[in-house]
Amino acid sequence: MRSIAIITGPETYLDHLGVLSSILNIPLIVTEEKLFYLAKQFYPDLDVVLYDLSDLTMEFLAQNYDVIFQTGKFWAAELGPLMELLFQKKMRFVFCPHGNSDKGHSLQNHIEQDVFLIYGDHLFDLLQQTGAAQKIRHIVKTGNYRYPYYLRHRCFYDKVAEEIVFSRFEKAKPTLLYAPTWNDKENPTSFFSATGALIEELSSSFNIIIKLHPFLIEDHPAKVFQIISHYENHSSVVILDNFPPIYPLLKRCSLYLGDYSSIGYDFLIYDKPLYFFNPKKTSSSSPLHSCGLEVPENVKGRWNAFFTQTLEFNRKNYSSKRKELYYYAFGEELSPESIQSTIFKKLTDRLYPNKLKNCTRSRGS
To answer: Is 10 helix (H, G, I), strand (E, B) or coil?
Structure first.
């Protein structure tokens, strides 16, 4: 089957669909020069091609490919029927998630999907609970393929992370990764309310990496760049953009701070302390938040003491929960060959049986 992966979204998708493209040995099409050069820089084994978005017509795709891997949930629902109507082409679509996030799952506007990839039981259960699974033809578990990919290329990625990120810190201190999410319809970001105080209060004890969500910059460019410019020369702070691979950063960080970002799930593999802001100021339903400590509102102004005094408690007392949630979220690790064969087997199925016959939970039912 002639397969292609296409990214029309932000650069962070390279660490998801780009990695999957490498594992599946299929080309990756990107539609922006920035993404093309980032792919060349950070994923040198990728077969990446730059196309203008206007050249990716339905006729071009129908004539040249049988399967499209993508991270946009509307592709299958919108392009599939039109391709069949206009070109008598039954194109197959594979949705690749861009993180094991808790965001967006309470929304009920579910879209029809063809093949939907998941990491493990956590996302499977969310699809079931929200009713989204009823609109998916095939669900395929892949496990966490991104962490093994990092390990296979560890020397390359560790060198890149040192040159671009860690060499910028003036002193050797424990490193805190702050990964705020963006403002969506469901969960707000902590970035604008917390960043200034975070840097002022914690930079004496920690080196701080702030991993910007691309939609933060897209939605609030002036406010974000004002913060970046204010702290760009700080000796203990790196505000990071245009750095898609996450695991070479997580490996060297001593603790994680976030709100609702999927990076918190990625960090579970290292079983290190997690801390959370709760910008909604309500009881959190995220399983991830049960694996660490929420930063109380009343300690603002005393964050340095709070983090340093609770770090060892967090490390020891939440370890078992972190390990349990990692397995629930990602399941068993699969070989690249197994991932390839499982996905392409579903793509060769002519019938669309009920999703419960295609994918069962790895533990229980």
So the answer is: coil
C-alpha pair distances (Å), 299 with each of 88, 245, 293: 62, 33, 13
Distance separating the N- and C-terminal Cα atoms of the chain:
33
Rounded distance, CA 122 to CA 325, Å? 9
Residue recorded with tokens 């993508």: 70
Residue whose structure tokens are 């920690």? 206
pLDDT tens per residue, range 117-133: 999 999 999 899 888 89
Instruction: Give the max Cα distance, the chain.
Output: 65
Contact residues for 297 (Cβ-Cβ < 8 A; gap 6+): 281
Q: Find the mean pLDDT for residues 358-363.
A: 47
Mean pLDDT calculated for residue range 32-38: 96
Give the Cβ contact number of residue 219 at 10 Å.
14
Residue in the block written with tokens 């194109």: 91
Q: What is the C-alpha R_g of the chain?
A: 21
Average pLDDT of the residues in 243-270: 95
Point out which residues pair with 113 in neighbouring strands: 136
Q: Residue 281: its pLDDT value, please?
A: 65
Cα 312 to Cα 321: distance, rounded to the nearest angstrom: 15
